Amino acid sequence: MDVVPILLLVIVAPLWIIFHYITKWKQMKGITAEDEASLGDLRTAADRLEDRLRTMERIMDDEVPDWRSRHHDKF
């Protein structure tokens, strides 16, 4: 019975696979420049939407002063 192939399959191969993927995960740890750009775009869009919502709430407060209380009563 040859022990070397069995040791390779049982011990060396799984360890090699584990260390290979640990190395890959460490390389992928940070975000890429493309991810940062996407996050920046999303932040800009969120800021614009927040400004629009504030504007709409200001208009509603001027036009229908009690709109908030009527809205909350329904829920």
From TrEMBL:
Sequence intervals crossing the membrane: 6-23
A GO biological process held by the record: phage shock
Keywords (A to Z) from UniProt: Membrane, Transmembrane, Transmembrane helix
Pfam families with a match to the protein in the record: PspB
Keyword Transmembrane attached: yes
Superkingdom, natural source: Bacteria
Record's protein name: Phage shock protein B
Alphabetized InterPro entries for the sequence: Phageshock_PspB
